[in-house]
Amino acid sequence: MGSRLNIPNLLTYLRILLIPIFILFYYLPNTWSYWVTTGIFVFACLTDWLDGYLARKLKQESRFGAFLDPVADKLIVVVALVLLVQSYGTAILSIPALIIISREIVISALREVMAECGKSAEVAVVYLGKVKTFIQMAAIAVLLSQPHTIDWNNYIITVGFILLYSSMMLTLWSMLVYLQASWRVLLAQE
After folding, report:
1. Is 185 helix (H, G, I), strand (E, B) or coil?
2. What total number of domains does the chain contain?
3. What are φ and ψ of residue 147, in 5° steps?
4. What angle do CA 41, 25, 93 make, to 5 degrees?
5. Using an 8 Å Cβ cutoff, are 164 and 81 in contact?
6. pLDDT > 70: what percent of the chain?
7. What's the CA gap between 74 and 81, in Å, rounded?
8. Which residue, 19, 14, 15, 9, is CA-closest to 51?
9. Which of 22, 35, 94, 142 has its CB 3.0 to 4.6 Å from that of 160, i.e. a possible disulfide?
10. How many angstroms separate the CA atoms of 55 and 50, rounded?
11. pTM (predicted TM-score)
12. Tens of pLDDT along 146-188?
């Protein structure tokens, strides 16, 4: 029980608990709500980095934390993408969001299968995945911070979409890397 209440896991719980607050502020009809939702999202992203750092530094890594941390990360990203898709209501945002969410489902299933085969190390997080995650979170933060209309004269929106499409490309690339690393195991007879 103690390992579930360590500082890194408490930060992960906090990220999950912030999701309904994030949604609430997202739907407030005030211009400052863009900045509050962006702040909550960025804070969640920073706690993601911090909980991993503290888990290693304080030697508080646990199987429970290894499970919960990626769940919390995926939840906040998926919720943010779904909210942005709903607000923008356009294929230009829906397509990369769908690809990003679909990749997370595929990789989660892949990791589960690989763990059952005792081959988890073959689908461990790689540097490419970390870069993808950083760009993805930056794209979402930028898009959250602006009124949710496509205005190509607003350079911040343009940067947000460039980052989103860059993260989509890295998402596809990293998925292919993971699938290639596990392909023999997936095709092997039982």
Report:
1. helix
2. 1
3. -55, 140
4. 60
5. no
6. 93
7. 10
8. 9
9. 142
10. 8
11. 0.89
12. 988 888 778 999 999 999 999 999 999 989 888 888 887 777 7
User: What CA–CA distance (Å, rounded) separates 41 from 67?
Assistant: 21
Distance from C-alpha of 31 to C-alpha of 36, rounded to nearest angstrom: 10
Q: Which two tokens stand for residue 111?
A: 């990791």
Q: Are 186 and 117 in contact (CB under 8 A)?
A: no
> Residue 81 sits in a domain of what CATH number?
1.20.120.1760
HSE-CB for 175 with a 13 A CA cutoff: 17
The one-character DSSP state at 148 is S
Contacts of 33 (CB under 8 A, 6+ apart): 25, 26, 27
Q: Where in the sequence is the domain holding 181, given as residue range(s)?
A: 2-187
| Residues 91 and 137: beta-carbon distance below 8 Å | no
Length of the chain as a residue count: 190
What angle (nearest 5°) sits at the alpha carbon of residue 30, between those of residues 161 and 33? 55
DSSP 24-84: HHHTSSSTTHHHHHHHHHHHHHHHHHHHHHHHHHTT---HHHHHHHHHHHHHHHHHHHHHH
Both tokens of 16, joined, read 């999950």
Select from 19, 49, 26 the least CA-distant residue to 137. 49
